[in-house]
Design goal:
This protein is of the alpha+beta class. Helix content is 33%, strand content 23%. The protein is built from three helices and five strands. A five-stranded mixed beta sheet has the order 1-2-5-3-4. A hairpin with a 2-residue loop joins strand 1 and strand 2. The N and C termini lie far apart (75 Å). The mean pLDDT is 91.
Length: 132
């Protein structure tokens, strides 16, 4: 039986997806996608499945995700799912569809926080000066 492992990242969230032949079941941390909350995150996760059309009904996808917040995890999961589908079907046309819809479906978001600097509470903010 053919099975593909992929991953997706966003901020500090890391999602690992296993795509294998099946009947269209999608689970995230062992929770069926129909029960996944909040709804906005669920809709974001379902985008690559909708774009794939009939192909998404031929595979079972199991995703584990950890770290980050709710939407960071959702974005990491959709990247992992989209990459897994492309790799499983070895379909360049599907990958092109994903890229034209939203580049972040195939490419991880590599933005990270800047390191904190001395003289301030964060990377950019500085202690205020008063000359009075």
């Amino acid at each position: 039986m053919d099975c593909v492992n992929t991953s997706g990242k966003r901020k500090t969230a890391v999602a690992r997806a296993v795509v294998k032949e099946g009947t269209g079941k999608v689970t995230i941390n062992k929770v069926p996608i129909a029960l996944y909350t909040p709804e906005l995150a669920r809709l974001k996760i379902q985008e690559p499945l909708g774009l794939a059309g009939d192909k998404s009904a031929k595979v079972d996808i199991s995703v584990t995700v950890q770290g980050g917040g709710v939407m960071g995890q959702a974005t990491a999961v959709r990247t992992a799912i989209a990459r897994g589908m492309c790799e499983f079907f070895k379909d360049d046309e599907l990958e092109e569809t994903y890229r034209s819809y939203d580049r972040s479906l195939i490419i991880n978001d590599d933005r990270r926080k800047l390191p904190k600097n001395p003289m301030g509470p964060g990377a950019r903010a500085k202690k205020q000066k008063s000359y009075r």
